[in-house]
What does this fold into?
Amino acid sequence: MSKKRLIIIGGGISGLSAGVYGQLSGFETTILEKHHIVGGQCTGWERKGFHIDNCIHWLTGSNPNKCLYKIWERVGALGPGVEMIKNDSLIRIDGKDGNHYHVWRDLKKMKEEMLKLAPEDKDVIEEYIDAIDRYRDVEVFGIPIEQYSLWDYIRLFYKMRRVGKVTKKYSKISIADFREKFKNPLLRRAVDVCMPDHFYAEALFYTYGTFVSSDGDIPKGGSRATALRMQKRFEELGGRTRLNTPVEDIIIDKSTHCATAVKLSNGEEIEADFVIAATDVSVTLRKLLGGSVKDNYFTKRFKDKKNYPIGSHMVIYFGCNCRPENMPDTVAFEEEPITLCNHQIKLIVLKHYMYEESFAPKGKCVMQVMLVQDESDFDFWENLYNNSQEKYKEEKNRVAEAVRINVEKHFPELKGQLETVEILTPYSFHKWTGAYKGSYMSFITTKYIKPEKHHGRVPGIKNIYLAGQWVNPPGGLPNALTSGKFAVQRICKDHKIKFIK
Ligand SMILES: Cc1cc2nc3c(=O)[nH]c(=O)nc-3n(C[C@H](O)[C@H](O)[C@H](O)COP(=O)(O)OP(=O)(O)OC[C@H]3O[C@@H](n4cnc5c(N)ncnc54)[C@H](O)[C@@H]3O)c2cc1C
It folds into this structure.
């Protein structure tokens, strides 16, 4: 019997994951990627002698004892040969008065530091540390929810048993609300620097819980190397990757309600038995399906910006002429306010990549600054770009220069050592992967809503499935990974094909 042809549109993490599971389950699988390299947002490139690592700051699923690790391993991203970077602290937050606070891997140390800094906040510190500790055990099983067996539910309840109390208390509290519980100004400022204010507070406990349980480490080689390992695994299994291959359209036979082929931008048509759209959902719905499909889940969410906001970043990379060995991996601080997209920002989050010697010439290192952006900021950059690319560039350079001055003010030892090597805006992400409003994840889980996944199918069409972070909010790499696996699991279940994990 000939193999069923599976076409995957998009070679980001979700598309690569779908590709590996497609091959394992016996499909003849092809990934079509518009870019010259796989990885989507999880990528990297060279600039002025430095490596720009676009994505991984932490990778949930890096603990070999957790279920998610097995999936990362299966797709070739992690495994015994992949060294993991395990920093002692996720971030250091510097206060104005020389005080600072760390998110330590060692929770006991973190608690002691917080109590020393702010004895007046003893009760809330204890509650906070306890909440993070309870999130250590939380697991992502990597099975679509509708395919859970009774045993999976029992496992889920067992794994979640310690967080029930926290969920009950915090499901209607945002990170911004939680911050208000602290009296100490540094702690008040510090708790939310890794995440947008309007995320529900549990997201913070979950993220820090993964870090303290060694489930949020960084694979050596960074984002590009991780994606390339997945491509290698896919191709070793017999899959085919076609790069520089943008898809224009999915051809649908209206009488059978089935996709029959995909059409490339050069006019070529490729026949398919199944299609997985692993593109940003806005690309899938608007471009590939030509706006013809009504999907209530996405319509509601894209309209309701208060309850389903999205987030992005402006990202600036500096080549640094020295290696300031005493600097923490990531540090947040405030110096002079900077005007960014018509508002003032103060908070700067600075990361260095000194643990990756190949990312910079000998004796130097590369540093990254991330500035939080929202949907309206995307509009600012898009309008500027469309009005004048020259002005867009000038504005990017102005902000980067203001940031450089602030970094040098905060770290006087870096004075004269920094050269701007790359500047990305939310519009950059949109141009290159099609990311909706430059979003780096999908819908942010707010306190107003119940987190709910998409069913991963296209209403009214029998053989198109959706993968990608938008199907599994709030997105990020683990959700992109599992969404690719889920798409193949759904095809197998719906069409009575054995799924091989
Ligand atoms: C600056 C930054 C930092 C991040 N840090 C982290 C982190 O530390 N940890 C974490 O978990 N997540 C992080 N993320 C998020 C993570 O990168 C994404 O969640 C994830 O990569 C999304 O994968 P995806 O497959 O869903 O989508 P994408 O990566 O967007 O992949 C979609 C692919 O489809 C391709 N495509 C689009 N249109 C077409 C077409 N017409 N034809 C063919 N191909 C097409 C695109 O080129 C792209 O390769 C970060 C993101 C950014 C931008």
